[in-house]
Every structure is written in C-alpha cells, then in structure tokens.
C-alpha cells in the first residue's frame, strides 16, 4: 500500500481557496455531529516526524473545543499495564455528538511493542485481531471511525528529524523511538505496509496520506473528514450502515469462532437442594478460609478475577456476594452494582461502562448484574433494536475472550429460583420494614414476564457459555445451599488456574 502513496507537490497558494472552503465546512461539523448524536473518532498514525501533531493542530482550529478531545498516545503507564491492553482506549471513547482525536492510536502500541521486542509474533497477530474486533464493535454501534496514516519518504523523515535535533528549541521532541524509527526505516516500512493491508477493512478503511508536502496533505485530510462526517450523517438518516469508499482493496474480515459449553435449561435445575444450619456454617468457614488464601496467591501472581452475578429478582445475589466478599481482603476487590445506565453511559457503547470498571490485575472485580442486561432486559423492554441485541452475543463473547487473554479468571453465575419462591420473598420484603426498599413496582411487573425472561436466559446461556467463560447455574431456592455452591465454584476455579500456572513454569 505505501508504495502506491503519491507525494503531491502543491504550493499552498494554489489550494488556498480550497482549504478556506474546507475550513468553513469543518467549522459546521460540530453542529452536524451533535444534532445527529454521532460519535466520531479520528486517528492519526504514521512515521515519526510525519506531521501528526501539526496536522491535528490545523484540524482543530476549525472545530469548537467544547465538542472535541485530543489524546496523545504515549507508552503505557504502570496503571495501563495492569489492565487489558485496549482498556486505555475504551476509557476515552467519546459520547454521541463529540469528537475524539488521537495522536497515534492502538496501532502504535502494537507495531512499536513488536519492533522493540516487548511482544512476540503471536501476541502481535492477536493484537491486530483485537484491533479489528474493537473497530468493528465501535462501527457496529454507529461510531464513525476515520483512520489516517501519514506517509513520508526516508529522505524527508531524515531531513525533518535532523532539523528538529539542530535546534535548542525543538531537539527535546526527538525521542529514542523517533531515532529508531528513522534508523530502521526499511523494517518499519515493511511492517507498516503489512499492518495497513491487514487492517484495511470495509468498516474501518485507512486513508494513507502522502505527507512530504504539508499543504497537499492538509487538503486530503480535511476533505476526508468532511466527506466522512457528512456521509455518516446521511447514512444514519437513511437508517443504513455507512462505509467509506476505500482507497485500497479491503482485507477480508473473519469473525472469531468460540467453543460453546452445553448448559442445561434453567427449568431443569433441581431446586430442592438444601443445607441444614450446621453443615452450612461448617462449609461456609471452610470455603471462606480457602478463598482468602487463594486471593493472596492471585494477587502475588497478578491474576485478575472477574465474578459476574445474574439471576431472578429476589434470587439472593446480594446475600451471596456478601458471603463471598466477607472472605476477601477489602483492599483487593471491588463490588459494582449495575443499575440502569446513566445518560453519559447511554451515550457510549454499552460495554464502555464495564471496561471502565475493571480492577487491576491481581484484584477481584465483582459485578452485581452485568453486560448481560443487553440480551435480557433491553430486548424484553424494547430498549434496543433486535439487530443490535443479536450482535451483542458475539460482542460479549469477544469481550470476555479479551479478558481471558489478559489473564482473567471469569466466573459467571445465574442464581435460579422458582416462581413460587420468588413470590414468597417478594411478600416477605413487603411485610418487613427494613427490607421494603428492596421491592419495587418494577419487580412485580418483571414477574409478569417470567416466561419471556426464562426464554431469554436460556438463549443467553446457550450462546455465551464458552470454554473460557462458562455459566454456572446456582440452585437458589435454599439461600444457604446457593452461597456455598458459589463459594465452592470460585475456590475450585481459582485452584485450577493456579495449578495450571505452576505447571507452566
């Protein structure tokens, strides 16, 4: 691809009128984007000294600073390194109606890390797959993604870097990686070229810009942004997916296949299982003591643990989580109760609020309700189009696979009770003053949709019980039995993971 990029030599005076008209168009874009509730991400990647910073500076001159954010991507911080590698990009996603402009992107983390020997070939390939999944998820959700690669020739790069080094005012801008990028131009050229070809997809095509001549490059960039925004807004009005006309032939995109684990229907659960008080107290102490020790081992080995609770209203999730958390060092876990999304959460991809709640490696993240609301509550209450709900099963598997690849142990519980037990608990809450806050009109309304919910729960477990993140159905009519089963499951899963860690050494 890079060999086909033309370095157009144009005097600024020759295109000044075109640039002026484009700037006028750019100045209208924030209202266009805001009125359409369109999130826009513009990324600038390319060679060291190719002019990414100055190009962004020219672009934002025409934009209202209230509606854009510029993020300059540098080497990952210590906090970044303790999260999944794409975490730092998820956390800065723009709201609908706003721009995010990235000075280097997720491609910088991937190519540089590989070239500097920080990651191996297999990790490099996996990251490219993660990137394409990430970009597809964003664009599936209606985000406009405009990717630029600024290309300069080897002679031009050397000239610019030498000029920067020669001045006391600018020599600080030439960092070690810039020198390596220049000295290994041919190796980077080959790697960039393959990376661009691999990730030039129909949903996130590259704009490769010849940047030897800055005025001509500005003209191309401004034109591409104006055309993309206007095209995306028009497509949204028509209710169709927007795809840019690619500059080069696009790469074939292949969805990841997942190995699913057979999970029984929740109606097949034996809800008669129970424990007496003596046995319960004995096992509670046993598994809480084990879990405390396992938490310390997970912390030492920096193994993240993600525990997800879903279940019927009044199923006993809260009491279950309470007994689990009682075994843990409070400095090493966080419980996130998930309610209806806030306006700022609704304005972003639905997975954003879960990515941003992930704790560091070595810590426990416990979710009281999860991303599975996307495929249960939202379709039943008609909050999300069925097309997006159908996409969510795959997106959730992809999300959990990325957490697993990060090193996480993912434990998912559906706490199951029958309809009669739920009714008994609802009435108990109504008749107990200190518990009355737990019961709402919405709980009673949801109960009327029991059969529909059961259908969606079975579909959820069937489509998202993978070999790396299987569902465990908890028999919950007896709260004591349910608490012990959850604790025992967590203990067994962590023991298995730690045993595998020891064997791999």
Instruction: Provide the spatial order of strands within the biggest beta sheet.
Output: 2-3-1-4-5
Low-confidence stretches: none
- The helix/strand order is HEHEHHEHHEHHHEHHEHEHHEHHEHHHEH
Q: What average pLDDT do the residues reach?
A: 95
Per CATH, the class of the largest domain reads Alpha Beta
CATH fold descriptor of the largest domain: Rossmann fold
List the helices and strands and how they pair.
Layout: H1 12-35, E1 40-46, H2 52-60, E2 68-72, H3 78-81, H4 87-90, E3 99-103, H5 106-115, H6 121-140, E4 144-151, H7 154-165, H8 176-183, H9 185-198, E5 206-210, H10 214-238, H11 277-300, E6 305-311, H12 317-325, E7 333-337, H13 343-346, H14 352-355, E8 364-368, H15 377-380, H16 386-406, E9 409-416, H17 419-431, H18 441-448, H19 450-464, E10 471-475, H20 479-503
Helix pairs in contact: 1-10, 5-6, 6-16, 11-20, 12-20
Structure notes:
The structure is a single chain. The chain has 2 domains: 32-238, Rossmann fold; 266-503, Rossmann fold, CATH 3.40.50. The chain has 20 helices and 10 strands. It has helices spanning 12-35, 52-60, 78-81, 87-90, 106-115, 121-140, 154-165, 176-183, 185-198, 214-238, 277-300, 317-325, 343-346, 352-355, 377-380, 386-406, 419-431, 441-448, 450-464, 479-503, and strands at residues 40-46, 68-72, 99-103, 144-151, 206-210, 305-311, 333-337, 364-368, 409-416, 471-475. The strands form 2 sheets. A 5-stranded parallel beta sheet has the order 2-3-1-4-5, sandwiched between helices. Strands 7-8-6-9-10 form a 5-stranded parallel beta sheet, with helices on both faces. Helix 6 packs antiparallel against helix 16 and helix 12 (317-325) crosses helix 20. The longest helix has 25 residues, at 214-238. It is elongated and about 85 Å long. The model has no long low-confidence stretch (mean pLDDT 95).
């Amino acid at each position: 691809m890079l060999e086909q990029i033309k370095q157009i030599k144009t005097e600024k005076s020759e295109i000044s009128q075109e640039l002026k008209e484009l700037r006028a168009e750019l100045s209208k874009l924030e209202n266009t984007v805001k009125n359409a509730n369109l999130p826009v991400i513009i990324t600038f990647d390319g060679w060291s000294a190719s002019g990414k910073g100055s190009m962004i500076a020219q672009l934002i001159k025409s934009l209202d600073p209230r509606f854009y954010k510029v993020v300059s991507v540098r080497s990952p911080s210590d906090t970044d390194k303790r999260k999944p590698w794409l975490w730092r990009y998820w956390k800065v996603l723009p709201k609908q109606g706003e721009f995010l402009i990235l000075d280097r992107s997720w491609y910088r983390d991937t190519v540089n890390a590989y070239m500097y020997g920080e990651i191996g070939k297999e990790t490099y390939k996996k990251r490219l797959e993660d990137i394409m999944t990430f970009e597809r998820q964003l664009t599936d959700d209606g985000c406009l993604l405009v990717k630029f690669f600024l290309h300069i020739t080897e002679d031009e790069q050397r000239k610019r870097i030498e000029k920067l080094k020669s001045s006391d005012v600018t020599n600080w801008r030439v960092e070690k990686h810039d020198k390596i990028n220049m000295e290994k131009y041919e190796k980077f050229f080959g790697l960039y070229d393959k990376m661009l070809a691999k990730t030039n997809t129909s949903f996130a095509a590259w704009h490769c810009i010849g940047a030897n001549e800055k005025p001509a490059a500005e003209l191309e960039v401004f034109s591409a942004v104006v055309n993309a925004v206007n095209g995306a807004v028009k497509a949204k009005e028509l209710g169709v997916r927007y795809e840019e006309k690619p500059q080069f032939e696009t790469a074939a995109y292949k969805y990841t296949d997942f190995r699913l684990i057979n999970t029984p229907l929740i109606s097949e659960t034996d809800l008669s299982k129970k424990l007496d008080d003596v046995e319960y107290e004995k096992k509670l102490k046993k598994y809480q003591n084990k879990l405390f020790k396992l938490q310390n081992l997970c912390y030492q080995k920096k193994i993240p643990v993600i525990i997800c609770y879903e279940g019927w209203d009044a199923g006993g999730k809260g009491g279950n989580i309470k007994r689990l958390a009682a075994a843990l060092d409070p400095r090493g876990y966080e419980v996130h109760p998930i309610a209806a999304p806030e306006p700022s959460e609704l304005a972003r991809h639905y997975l954003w609020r879960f990515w941003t709640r992930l704790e560091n490696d070595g810590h426990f993240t416990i979710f009281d309700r999860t991303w599975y609301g996307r495929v249960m509550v939202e379709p039943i209450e008609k909050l999300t189009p069925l097309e997006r709900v159908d996409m969510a099963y795959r997106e959730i598997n992809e999300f959990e696979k990325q957490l697993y690849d990060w090193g996480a142990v993912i434990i998912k519980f559906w706490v199951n009770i029958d309809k009669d037990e739920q009714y008994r608990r609802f009435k108990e809450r109504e008749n107990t003053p200190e518990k009355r806050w737990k019961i709402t009109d919405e709980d009673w309304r949801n109960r009327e949709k029991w059969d529909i919910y059961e259908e969606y729960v079975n579909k959820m477990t069937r489509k998202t019980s993978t070999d790396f993140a299987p569902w465990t159905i908890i028999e919950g009519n007896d709260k004591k039995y349910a608490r012990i089963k959850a604790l025992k499951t967590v203990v067994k899963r962590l023991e298995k993971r730690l045993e595998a860690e020891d064997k791999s050494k």
